[in-house]
Amino acid sequence: MTYSEPSTSDFWEKITHGFKKMGGEVAILAITLWLVMTDPKTPISIKITIGSALAYLIMPVDMIPDFIPVTGYADDLAALSAAATAAGTSITEEHKTQAREKWEAL
């Protein structure tokens, strides 16, 4: 079985075009997880968990459609939160700082 990360362009398109709808904290969590997943020091099992959650975020079809106001990103947030919990100590302060800087640059 091979591991494949979610597409970089698909991820950043979702973040840059959907950030107003998803809200800052969801976007920052997604960016943080992206940084953890792309960090060479992150174990492959954590990368797979994060990659699955990020793939769910960028999929055009999910349990609660993203275009529904307020609740549209609730299922995405649940997936991201579960991945962040699983990632645990793989998430560093550097990842968090870089995520906030990237978010502010948007």
TrEMBL record:
UniProt main location, coarse: membrane
Pfam family, one: DUF1232
Cellular location(s): Endomembrane system
Membrane is among the record's keywords: yes
Membrane topology term: Multi-pass membrane protein
Tree of life domain: Bacteria
Domain DUF1232 span(s) in chain numbering: 47-81
InterPro entries found in the cross-reference section: DUF1232 (IPR010652), UCP031804 (IPR016983)
Coiled coil residues, start to end: none
Keywords assigned: Membrane, Transmembrane, Transmembrane helix
Annotated protein name in UniProt: DUF1232 domain-containing protein
